[in-house]
Amino acid sequence: MKKRRKQTQSRISNETLRTNPERMVTKLEMSSNEMETPVNENELQANETGTAAPVNPNEEKLVRKMALYMFLAKFYSGNLLKIDREMWNRLGDMVREEVSFFDHEKMQQGSRMIIQAVNDAAELEFDFNRLFVGPDRLEAAPYESVYRGTERAFMQAETMAVRKFYERAGLSLVNKNREPDDHLSFELEFAGYLLEESLEDSVYYELYEAFLRLHLFQWVERHCELVREKTANGLITGVSYLLQGLMEVERKQMNVLRR
Amino acid sequence: MSKVSRRTFLKGSAVLGALAGIGGTASSFKKIKPAKAAGKKKQVFSSCPRNCYDTCSIVTTVEDGTIKFVTGNMNNTYTNGRLCVKGYTYPNYVYSPDRIKYPMRQKERGSGKWERISWDEAYDIIAKKILEIKKEYGTTLPIALNKYSGNFNVLNNAVEGMLSSWGYTTRAQGTPCWPAGIDSQTFDFGAAVANDPEVMVKAKYLIVWGANPAWTSVHSMSIIERAKENGTKIVVIDPIMTDTASKADEYIGIKASTDGALALGMAKYILDHNLHDMEWMKKNSIGYEEYLNYLRNNITVEWASEKTGVPVEVIERLAREYAAAKPAAIWLGYGLQRHTNGGASVRAIDALAAMTGNIGVAGGGANYAQTECYGFNYAVQSAGTPPEGDKAGGDRMLNMNNFPAQVLAINNDPEQIPIKMLWVACRNPIAQDPEASVSYKAFESIDFIVTADLWFNETVKQSDIVLPVSSIFETWGLTASYWHYWVNVNEPAIEPLYESKSDLEIAMGISKRLNELEPGSCTYPTDRSIEEWISNELADDFIKKFGFKTWRDILEKGTAKVEGYEAAWSDGKFRTPSGKYEFLSETCAANGHHALPVYVEEMEVPKDRPIRLFSPHWKYGLHSQFQNLEWMRSIHNEPFVEIHPALAKKKGIEDGDMVRVESEVGYVEVKAKITHTVPKDAVVIYEAWYKEQNFNANFLLKATPSDMGSYATGQAGLAFHDQFVTVEKI
Question: ipTM score of the complex?
């Protein structure tokens, strides 16, 4: 059983990552499982409730973040479009519970809006598709390349950089080349995965921070602001505050200012 | 802390627990060996299937399953290693975030409220609708198809096969593009067979008549430039001073719709000065005496000058130069036949080429089009035959060029079997048909509309269900040109994006569901791979012609040329009833036209709308395609109307002013661009579909038929350029 390294010792400086991202990746490759198997679902998703063992506050924060990443990933994957008002009520409460751990106004605003806007669930799918799916031109395309590239096209350099990052963490999309790697739901799911793995190996925590810095921080907040310009749907607006708030919490912790 | 207890802690998260129960627990990722990550590079041959002269053979570079680069295939000497501005946008086209990704259903047409459905649901909804119609009417005739030239890959004929496999149906028949000219050449030669355009370089004299290859056939332009370097004189005849005209040695601005008069005037001069080729006419034609007598008795150069606005001395010099140069070629564009006398004009020009002995000569010809390269079995189409018991006994044909009005006529007539369902594929009829307002009404009169497309457009907006179609890079294909003599293969370069499928896969999918719901209700085969389908498409005689052992041999170079068309008709075996070139065509007369290529008066200009509207092709688009793409939008995304300074002055319009252009059927408000390139009595709005703009040249166009087209293509063409408007400053 690998020991979790202390973050203060193992964290690689921002500067190092910018200049030498390979360094930590090499370490990771040596330690990662080389089997080509699907991720074990039971490891990612909980299916029973139990009393958590006492853990230190840092780790608790990490797990709560992970839960929020997974919620946001699931939202952007389109899997929450068919759930009813009741389910949104329950989910909203749970999100509020996670959010309460972080004393951050935007995140709390997001979770409040989700709870207040459960009536918007009826129109959620239509609004969601108009913004993120189609068939018409997307009003707030959820792809990194759309924000960072100049050509409104994915599978270009921006998408390939994300793909490369996944590969360095030993992952590849199940639907590789059928769906672009830089879709927001994949990036959020990946961040959650790295967090979970970091419970066992702090190299993953370094990857997680690098992924935020190199990718999510580069576009997600702009995306959230665009979403709010384009929709009045309270659920979607709430999610945009929640996501943007989460990014701000991450920035504060990592001491990375938004440019 | 042990691994187990940490994971257990995760399970304490209520959100994660709840999420696990929604939408499945599958991860979007799989673990890979890092060494496997590096992707492979490959190059495959693709083929541009658009409705375009150039029909390019493409080399596509793929790395790690994504397209990196497209360029022209050097093995195809016409494509010659380069694409056009439209072709180079393909990577942007394939990877646009705005492509249609999933089958979707609209809550209410035009509402913009779309929900995602699975393919199984889509097939189920469609199949049940078909069966319901069949049960109610005893036939599938209430199902209509509107499909045309958005994708000329032979496999897309699966759509016609699919409809037939349901039963007899209603079809949009004909072609909006070129039918009048096709009829003319069928009457004169027995078929439209142009010389191989690569041989155009041998012409000593070249008249580009009503075509703008600098925009619409750039690969021909490089042939024209080479000819020019050899000393060939290039003359462009066009009412608009096009980019092609700007590169010519001489530009002749002709009054619209009077091309026949110019050809006859030239022929008269040639006859008067004994520059015609009597020997060729005697040997190869019938009716030449009657034709020459018509010239003698009815035509003068002065008359031609008055008609065309071209000075007498210019007509005379043009005639002299054309007759003296051996060989001399004419390229007849599709623009000149989009008139109420367009077919007659093409016949007059054909006759000019024939009377000077320029037919059957390399570097000569009256070059309009050819369909000699379509060496396909159309197995995807013939695979669908109506199942037993459809009481209709045959398809119902509507004119594609007046489809909305005919749909409305049927649906307003209780005596007729109504149109209840419409299938749209390879087409954006609401943007491309004239009289857009009638299109909306026709769509409203139909219960259920399915559109298969890559892009959201006006037609998708008025549909109930949209199906995502794969791009050319995601499936197999074979395409042939109607201009050059190459057949190109299209290999799959990448996996289909999202859930897109080809029209052929869709045909099989619906068939499968129909037969599950009601065995025997659909005849379309469901058990073949796309590769199996394509392997049946190249006709045996073409495989032999190309010197292949199997169809797969075309994959070696990506392209194969049909040889033997350097000088079409050089064998003197015309496909007319007489076997000769027919100056006098009984077939033409029997179809309600003149037997001789006489002048047919142009359409009268209405007094209350005295300004002619041209809506020719646009350089950054092809009908409703390409102009919607991001790369094109970044260059240009604002429609405009071109107005001559004299007309602008009269109307008090300055460059950049907004003006209202109004016709009998509609109006547009658009920015004015003042230019000397258009005639004083006409304006130009290029036909193109601008995404998200309430603008289309077709808002102004009336479905006025051209004179010919119904003999060879089933339906008359459209007089796109006989449209009249008023223009006022807003």
Answer: 0.94
